[in-house]
Write a structure and sequence with these properties.
By secondary structure, the protein is an alpha+beta fold. It folds into two domains: about 280 residues, BirA Bifunctional Protein, domain 2 (2-Layer Sandwich); about 100 residues, Alpha-Beta Plaits. Helices cover about 25% and strands about 25% of the residues. The protein has eleven helices and 16 strands. A seven-stranded mixed beta sheet has the order 3-7-8-12-11-10-9. It has a four-stranded antiparallel beta sheet with strand order 14-15-13-16. The protein has a three-stranded antiparallel beta sheet with strand order 4-6-5. Strand 9 and strand 10 form a beta hairpin. The longest helix is centred in the middle third of the chain and has 29 residues. Bound molecules: phenylalanine. The site of phenylalanine (PHE) has 11 residues, from strand 11 and strand 12. Phenylalanine binds next to strand 11 and strand 12. Is responsible for the charging of tRNA(Phe) with phenylalanine in mitochondrial translation. Belongs to the class-II aminoacyl-tRNA synthetase family.
């Protein structure tokens, strides 16, 4: 791990391998991608027929059928223009920051969502399409967060005045609702706005019913209960849709947020010269649903090469994961003083520590939690203590082996994060 990282860091440019066609990119002051994350590029879990991630994506693909072109091999390396600007993200949107996103350099980044391909595919002439892809975000470390995960994006475009009518009698929701806070776009007639909102709701409720039916089959629940799945629509906000919604499903005693969606902002269609069109888009994360459907307790398992994991799943079937024995964990604390805030700099962000730990320990890190923080009454400096839980998914780790990793964390933290160990 550290060897690969030092090779990447030592080079004047970043060389991306395998799936990224061996392209080379110059480093600059935006570069924050790490070796541990680069190593995941090209894994393409969503293309392996017997992998739970691909099984989930295929359920959605089969539901939508051949009317929607299917794109599962678009490069994860995109421009901030594609990932943010083309979609109308504000200049100061937090998603753009170095603490939230992985940059290769200031003009090149890892896509943070499949929406990065909306404009590109519309410009290529696609009207109805699905994108399945790996997406990258800097985030916390625990059993449900991983720097790489997968999304499916869906887009459907109609000519104005010609939105396909849907049978709304079966829908969980009442009539489409928009409000001052979640407005319709003034450029559309009320008839088009309502029709596209109905079509969106019917299409996405239909998709969610059919994928949850597959999960219920795995639990041995008769699919006749499919229509009883409880769903609700809540207002959402995305810079690239209006009105925007989230769809939630009542699942195992809780409301579970399943997808984000909305009516495509006209400025996006305009970029593809679609001046007389109206459409909807949605995005859905695959890991959380797959963890629920397949009963997978830790998100790292999706990346396991262990045949005891991979051998349990087969294409087209949702089956419950049979855990193999859980190996013991090893816990270590690290405490430090944060750097003093400097004007115009982003300063310390917990994601910086999470990244460093991932880079040193790879998939041996299970969880990192802030356990204590305080401000020194005299110096006003802030101290953080983090508890790092190490555990392997497939073997026993020794205390000596973890001490080596923890020493590396302690050595690199002052160098890279400008913190002072306590
Ligand atoms: N890209 C959004 C996300 O990652 C989801 C989304 C897609 C919302 C399409 C609306 C339309 O959260």
């Amino acid at each position: 791990m550290s060897l690969r990282l030092s090779l990447v860091r030592a080079a004047a440019g970043i060389r991306l391998t395998a799936g990224l066609l061996g392209a080379s990119y110059p480093r600059d002051d935006h570069t924050n991608i790490t070796g541990a994350v680069l190593a995941k590029v090209g894994s393409d879990l969503h293309q392996q027929p017997n992998h739970p991630i691909c099984i989930m994506a295929t359920l959605m693909r089969d539901h939508f059928g051949p009317l929607y072109t299917y794109h599962d091999a678009l490069s994860p390396v995109v421009s901030p223009a594609a990932n943010f600007d083309s979609l109308g993200f504000e200049k100061d949107h937090p998603g753009r920051s170095l603490s939230d996103s992985y940059y290769i350099n200031k003009d090149t980044m890892m896509r943070t969502h499949t929406s990065a391909h909306q404009v590109e595919l519309l410009q290529k002439g696609h009207r109805n399409f699905l994108v399945v892809a790996d997406v990258y975000r800097r985030d916390e470390i625990d059993s449900t967060h991983y720097p790489v995960f997968h999304q499916v994006e869906g887009v459907r475009v109609f000519d104005r005045g010609n939105v396909e009518a849907v049978d709304s009698s079966n829908l969980a929701s009442g009539p489409p609702n928009a409000s001052a806070d979640n407005p319709r776009q003034a450029c559309y007639t009320t008839v088009d706005s309502e029709a596209v909102e109905w079509h969106l709701k019917a299409s996405l409720e239909g998709m969610v019913r059919s994928i949850f039916a597959a999960a219920q089959q795995a639990q041995g629940i008769a699919t006749t209960q499919e229509s009883e799945l409880k769903m609700r629509w809540v207002d959402g906000y995305f810079p690239f849709t209006s009105p925007s919604y989230e769809l939630e499903v009542w699942y195992e005693g809780k409301w579970m947020e399943v997808l984000g969606c909305g009516v495509i902002q006209q400025h996006i269609l305009e970029q593809a010269n679609l001046h007389n069109s109206v459409g909807w888009a949605f995005g859905i994360g695959l890991e959380r649903l797959a963890m629920a459907f397949f009963r997978i307790p830790d998100i790292r398992l999706f990346w396991s090469q262990d045949p005891r994991f991979l051998g349990q799943f087969s294409a087209g079937k949702v089956t419950h994961f049979e855990p193999f024995s859980r190996y013991p964990s090893c816990t270590k604390d690290v405490s430090f003083w944060l750097p003093e805030a400097k004007d115009g700099e982003e300063g310390f962000h917990p994601n910086d520590l999470f990244e460093l730990v991932r880079d040193v320990a790879g998939d041996l890190v299970e969880d990192v939690k802030l356990t204590d923080s305080f401000v020194h009454p005299k110096t006003k400096r802030e101290s953080h203590c983090y508890r790092i839980t190490y555990r392997s998914m497939d073997r026993n780790v020794t205390n000596e082996e973890i001490n080596v990793l923890q020493d590396q964390v302690r050595q690199l933290a002052p160098e890279r994060l400008d913190v002072q160990l306590r």
